[in-house]
Specification:
Number of helices: 3
Oligomer: single chain
CATH architecture: 3-Layer(aba) Sandwich
Strand content: 25-35%
Shape: elongated
CATH superfamily: ABC-type transport auxiliary lipoprotein component
Order of helices and strands: HEEEEHEEEEH
Structural class: alpha/beta
Helix content: 25-40%
Number of strands: 8
Radius of gyration: 22 Å
CATH topology: Rossmann fold
Number of domains: 1
Largest sheet: 8 strands, mixed
Length: 190
């Protein structure tokens, strides 16, 4: 009886350790949700956000850090979601909160078409050891039926400490994306 209890306890311990070892130990970080502090009336009642495009390094699950020599190296921890998907969802959420319009990521989930589409193309999305999280690129707003097509460039930097942690990078990415949503709303949706 005692031997079978020891055997069963040993099996249970081995199974528990085996399951824990299978987890891979990958740490994943999501951007925290931030509340917009501005309200901008939109000329469009409904807006579709096309999935953002990112540089190759920024489109992966890895969180990258640009070194002083310009090399972009994986930090180790991973993003909780694919960056293009996560940033598209955040832009849609933030633009909806800022403008009061119905905003959704592509594909448009409602009947009919949206009044306008927003396409954001990133040239840069990286944290630096110099203390910045940087995003840069272009956005395009295309009305479905009438109105002027608009476009603009953006270059946004959020402060970071030198040699930032993954959690600090995630928070900075969320703040930079919110700032981008505010810029698009002010410059292209009024």
């Amino acid at each position: 009886m005692m031997m079978s209890k020891l055997f069963l306890n040993g099996l249970l311990l081995a199974a528990t350790l085996g399951i824990a070892g299978c987890g891979g130990g990958d740490l994943r970080y999501a951007t925290p949700a931030l509340e917009p502090t501005v309200q901008v009336a939109s000329r469009y009642r409904s807006i579709e956000v096309v999935e953002v495009t990112l540089p190759t390094y920024a489109a992966t699950e890895d969180i990258f850090l640009r070194q002083p020599d310009g090399a972009i190296e994986a930090l180790g921890p991973l993003w909780a979601d694919l960056p293009a998907r996560a940033m598209t969802l955040q832009l849609a959420r933030d633009l909806g909160a800022i403008t009061g319009a119905t905003v959704a990521p592509e594909p448009w989930p409602f009947r009919g078409f949206s009044d306008a589409r927003i396409d954001v193309r990133f040239e840069e999305m990286v944290a630096t050891t110099a203390g910045q999280f940087r995003i840069a690129g272009q956005y395009f707003v295309a009305p479905e039926t009438e109105g002027d097509e608009r476009s603009g460039r953006f270059s946004i930097a959020q402060p970071l400490p030198q040699d930032p942690t993954a959690a600090q990078i995630a928070a900075a990415r969320g703040a930079a994306t919110l700032q981008l949503a505010e810029q698009i709303a002010r410059a292209a949706l009024r």
